[in-house]
Amino acid sequence: MCAAGARRPRIAVVGTGGTFAMQARHAFDWVEYGESGVIHPIDALIPQIDGLGLDVDIVPVGFRMIGSTGIVPQDWVELARLIADTARADDTIDGFVVTHGTATLEETAWFLHLALDLRQPVVVTGAQRPQNTSGSDALGNLRAALAVAAAPQAAGIGSVVVMDGLVFAARDVTKAASFELHAFEAPPFGPLGRVDADGGVVLRRQALGSAPGALAAALAPGQPLPAVGMTVSYAGADGAAIDGLLQAGVRGLVSIGLAPGRPANGERAALQRAVAAGVTVVQAARAPRGQVPPQDFLVRDGILAGGDLTPQKLRILLMLLLAQSPALDAAALQTMLLAH
Known about the structure:
Number of domains: 2
Strand order of the largest sheet: 2-1-3-4-5-6-9-10
CATH superfamily of the largest domain: L-asparaginase, N-terminal domain
Mean pLDDT: 90
Radius of gyration: 21 Å
Helix content: 25-40%
Shape: globular
Structural class: alpha/beta
Order of helices and strands: EHEHEHEHEEEEEEEHEHEHEHH
CATH class of the largest domain: Alpha Beta
Distance between the termini: 38 Å
Number of helices: 9
Largest sheet: 8 strands, mixed
CATH topology of the largest domain: Rossmann fold
């Protein structure tokens, strides 16, 4: 509870749709609930939420209803601008919560971490089960996200993900299960902290790596983000998918290689063609704890090493790096990739 005379924290809640906003057809509609076709905007949901047990004021901010399988980079840009504009227009807001579908939640959180330079924390959360189903995690996740957004110790933390009572760095977190409530993990580093049953927030470590807003300058008004594609290696893979992306005009390419962080042999010539065409190619690994350090074979082919970022987050980082500094040479890009 707030001390007598103290101002209650004001938390802006930005709704983007997803499972959190969906209405299931029955109590155990945990898989195909999207078939109901009913999605509630955030300003309709917030008044229905009672008894969260947190001493905060909620400010609903509408965005748009997007299934997380349908979100595109332009949505990220517009969401980041909405949050930045809201913070600029109302300096009494202490934090932001973004409700989001879980399929691409980790990608949106990472983009917001890189693109927003705010003192207020931006907490991204969602639900594995719709609010009106048995055992739903929607209200519990919202309560925990609000608690983190209002916590003084979270100021300046950037963008984090809060799911199932745990606080994850946007850089580290990934969705590891389709339907389990405990679906989000951060291998190998683990969560930053937790939200206790009484709403108390415990942060045990700091997020290392990119500072919040490290690439905010990349969001030039009216400029779309550069196209960056991804291809996945497998036994017998050839260069057809890589050549297809080249024909589509990508400026960057993330090669999701086999567990050592190498493409299949049949892909090498196509990757070399991509580099020769001026496409920035970054080597990643498809292993859950994959790491790709700089190596001689990569240098010889003009390919950059992706370090320990997951492929989907390397793609976002590369998009923003290419947007901010399109003339960077390979050595400078390599340094920046590993620094984040």
